[in-house]
């Protein structure tokens, strides 16, 4: 069927809109619509297969996305392997990223390459997989903006000072998130990711055994929860022991994380201060009482997180193997 003049004009307007959008470094939802239309279905299939093999896939992939975006932007720099052990993932600050997150992205990218070689970035595969694991854990479904390119820099030395520490207070959290264009509301919503996954004992042991000169135990901890934590994490516990961060619904993406904060059951200082600090308390109460508010804010914040320092257009590259530069 021949195109009418109107259709031709609409078609060209669409092309121009897409081109100017990407030229300005913006991501769009349908980026691979013509070049790899199956990409999201392929990633989801890989993610769900891996989730059925091991639950750790879920928290590991979500956290990997966060660490990737906060260091050098969302550009899959965290997945690069270095023979010298000086890549981003080798940093002492990588906070023991679980191997299942890396494995998920590497496998999903291989499956995508088999269908559309050289088209989809590892950074986009990670962004899609991070959404898919949230959904797999019962969290909200949302659209992921795409068009990221893979970065050309991955250095352990760039990690230091770019990731938040579990000892941070609200001001320190706000400062670090603001540097990545994220608001306090985004920060509180993204912290809800701690509704899933594990932490090693040494990340919060100070709250149990050496909090301050006047109190060895952090007084903002619920006393019963503190007892449970001491039982799971005695002093001098083996360094590989890890416990659930959400003591109530550890394997479900839900707003129980915020209910825990209200009950004094936030695992890290950086979690509990969201309730004890008056400037963040009302949001925590809101999220604890209204799962829809939390889900909405989480989706907004994840999409913003996914725009941090992205490379688009001709920047960076489309890596063939996510663990190595081309
Ligand atoms: C707000 C500041 C944050 C701090 C201080 C923080 C700190 C930490 C720490 C210390 C751990 C435990 C690591 C271990 O011992 O293995 C952890 C785990 C985790 N974090 Fe965060 N995090 C923050 C924000 C985020 C955000 C924004 C996300 C994702 C959107 C996230 C997702 C996770 C997940 C899913 C785990 C569990 C990982 C696993 O089980 O493998 N965190 N975080
Ligand atoms: C994280 O860093 C530690 C210490 O530098 C290193 O032994 C470990 O292999 C790193 N983890 C990953 C997943 O690269
Ligand atoms: C934050 O937003 C500004 C303005 O849009 C942009 O220039 C900058 O690159 C962004 N920073 C990050 C870390 O994404």
From TrEMBL:
Residues 1-25 form the signal peptide. The record marks 63 as: Transition state stabilizer. Binds 2 calcium ions per subunit. The active site is at 67 (proton acceptor). Its main location: secreted. It is an enzyme of class 1 (oxidoreductase). PANTHER family: PEROXIDASE 55, PTHR31517. This is Peroxidase. Ca(2+) 1 binds at residues 68, 71, 73, 75, 77, 88.
């Amino acid at each position: 069927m021949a195109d009418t003049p109107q259709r031709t004009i609409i078609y060209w307007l669409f092309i121009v809109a897409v081109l100017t959008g990407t030229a300005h470094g913006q991501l769009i939802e349908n980026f691979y619509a013509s070049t790899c239309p199956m990409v999201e279905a392929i990633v989801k299939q890989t993610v769900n297969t891996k989730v059925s093999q091991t639950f750790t896939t879920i928290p590991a992939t979500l956290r990997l996305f966060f660490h990737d975006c906060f260091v050098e932007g969302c550009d899959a720099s965290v997945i690069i392997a270095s023979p010298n052990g000086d890549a981003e993932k080798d940093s002492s600050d990588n906070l023991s990223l679980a191997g299942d997150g890396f494995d998920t992205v590497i496998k999903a990218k291989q499956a995508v390459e088999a269908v559309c070689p050289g088209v989809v970035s590892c950074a986009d595969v990670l962004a899609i997989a991070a959404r898919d694991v949230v959904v797999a854990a019962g969290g909200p479904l949302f659209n992921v903006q795409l068009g990221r390119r893979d970065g050309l820099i991955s250095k352990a030395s760039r990690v230091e000072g770019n990731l938040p520490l579990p000892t941070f207070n609200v001001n320190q959290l706000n400062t670090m998130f603001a540097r990545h264009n994220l608001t306090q509301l985004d920060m509180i919503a993204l912290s809800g990711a701690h509704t899933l996954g594990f932490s090693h004992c040494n990340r919060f042991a100070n709250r149990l055994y050496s909090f301050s000169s006047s109190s060895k135990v952090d007084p903002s901890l619920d006393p019963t929860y503190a007892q449970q934590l001491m039982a799971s994490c005695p002093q001098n516990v083996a360094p590989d022991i890890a416990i659930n961060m959400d003591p109530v619904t550890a394997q479900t993406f839900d707003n129980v994380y915020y209910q825990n904060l209200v009950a004094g059951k936030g695992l890290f200082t950086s979690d509990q201060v969201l309730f004890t600090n008056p400037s963040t308390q009302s949001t925590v109460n809101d999220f604890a009482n209204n799962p829809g508010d939390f889900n909405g804010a989480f989706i907004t914040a994840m999409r913003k997180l996914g725009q941090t320092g992205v490379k688009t257009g001709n920047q960076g590259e489309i890596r063939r193997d996510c663990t190595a530069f081309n």
